[in-house]
Amino acid sequence: MRYGDPAHPPLIALHGGPGADHRYLLPQLLHLTERYELILYDQRGSGRSRAENNAPITWRDHVADLASLCQEFSITNPSLVGYSWGALLSMLYAIQSLDDTSLPAPARLALISPAPINRRYRVEFDENLRRRSNTPELVAAREALAASGLRESDPEAYRQRLFELGVAGYFVNPSQAHDLTPFRVVGRVQESTWNSLGEYDLEPQLKRLRLPVCIVHGRDDPIPSASSVDASRAMRSELTLIDRCGHVPYVEQPAELWGALDTFLASTDVVRPQTPR
User: Whose CA is closest to 82, among 237, 270, 207?
Assistant: First the structure.
């Protein structure tokens, strides 16, 4: 999907998951269409890009698909805006482009709430999210919903409330989950993609990158902010840590998020591609 004026410079936005789709980045990411054409797509196996079979989908498939998208739109040095898993995919793509000349090398990366850059931080994230999703308040709210009869009386309202309680652990203020566009994750895509990474650690390879990078991370994100600190140090990038913000800054603290991203994008609108490989 393409949003905004096609005469404006393109930005490719990569959604999270893996296994989700691009819709939950909307409408908030349309802020970027004030100055750019925003290109979003559903990654393989999710949304409108459902796979034709149940073959495992790997991170390498996602990288190859992104390269194909760049070629389809004749984008030689893509500017990538990645959210959560999409931010990790942006880094994986940039790393692969160093050694694979068939991949259009990215011009810059804007990374929002990046997924953990190594297995150790991913384990910590899983533990944090499990704990935050099972507070006494959220357990009581789920029990109250189950007993409310809303599922039978108003199925749509029930599904909305169930979604909000399902993602509440990502937010500092769980009530803000109401402002997030509902989505679902295709479990087998999520599982096969993460499994394909194995005992991964991107930090050593991130040190090889030489391109403008901006990272924005909420201090209260269940994904440890230390992961973004390490990524920022490795890539010598800009890092903005937002107070009172969990995993969804475009809902929780939009002014701070857009302040950081708008400044970065404006300062790097004329950028050089990566050094010759």
Answer: 237
**Structure-block tokens of residue 221:** 């994100």
- Cα(174)–Cα(216) distance, integer angstroms: 20
Q: Residue count of the chain, please give it.
A: 277
Assess whether pLDDT exceeds 60 at residue 131.
yes
CA angle 179, 226, 67 (to 5 degrees): 70
**Digit-coded pLDDT (tens) for 1-44:** 999 999 999 999 999 999 999 999 999 999 999 999 999 999 99
- The pLDDT value given to residue 276: 40
In angstroms, the first-to-last Cα distance of the chain is 32
Backbone angles phi, psi at 58, to 5 degrees: -115, 170
Instruction: Count other C-beta atoms under 10 Å from residue 255's C-beta.
Output: 9
pLDDT at res. 277: 41
Closest among 234, 226, 252, 18 to 124, alpha carbons compared: 226
How many whole angstroms separate alpha carbon 184 and alpha carbon 187? 9
Of 70, 71, 84, the closest CA to residue 20 belongs to 84
pLDDT of amino acid 96: 98
User: Biggest alpha carbon distance in the chain?
Assistant: 63
User: 2-123+185-267 maps to which CATH number?
Assistant: 3.40.50.1820
Nearest Cα neighbor of 217 from 243, 180, 236, 181 is: 243
Question: DSSP labels for 188-234?
Answer: HHHHHHHHHH-S-B-HHHHTT--S-EEEEEETT-SS-HHHHHHHHHH
Nearest Cα to 38, choosing from 27, 48, 46?
27
